[in-house]
Write a structure and sequence with these properties.
single chain, Rossmann fold
Length: 282
Amino acid sequence: MTMFKADLLAGKKILITGGGTGLGKSIGRHFVDLGAHLVICGRRKEVLDATADEFRAAVAGARVDTVACDVRDAAQVESMMDTIWTRGPLDVLLCNAAANFIARTDRLSPRAVDAVLGIVLHGTFYCTIAAGRRWIEAGRPGNVISTVSTPVMTGQSFTAPSAAAKAGVLAMTRSLAVEWGPKGIRLNCVAPGLFPTEGAWERLYPPGSQVEPQERGVPLRRFGKHSELADLYAYLAADGSGYLTGDLIVMDGGRWMQGAGGPTFRAMQDWDDGQWDALRTR
């Protein structure tokens, strides 16, 4: 079931970074269902191609392109954008690629910090500037949607690099919404709450890290559905949201209002070195 008509995104070419797996994949499938010409990028070409084949098999006439790109590398981002633009300009950029892990901040190496900042902050900047410059040079409107998280407002223990990087993305979004608004380019951020994904879920919420079932920390007492989140992104990608820019939209069932992350990682505040060493080994 969807709240939108089937051709809502017909005629729009949309790039999703990190679109081969997780939430990016769910959003991309919804975009294809709504008629978009989808482009997905990521570091693993075989994963991208498998996702594209899955979408084409499920949706008659689906247009799905794949481009291998490490968004941490500005030169690769420029090459990707050149490749995309040779087949026609983008209408929407969805910066979804991310990296995060649980760790004591005092034990983080510079390389570990850079691993997160490189994808989340630098990668989003590189992609946004590359697309924005091309839109501006061509005199075309544009639309950038960036995935962040509620710690941009509250901070969050044991994930400081991610919170800092995504706060930077929000600042970039609001800065460019003003700078590029007169050129017809709008930018917004979405902060999803608990939308379980395969693989990432156990890595981000290891056994013993929670003091209660996670959904108990959500006022609505449940996890989010991927379809609900995908509908929000579809609205932001559509022309009907054309007066919305520079905003942060939170979809987390009210969870963030219970405090800085609610009960997330509360149990880990009392872990001893042995427990942390076991987590690093796992």
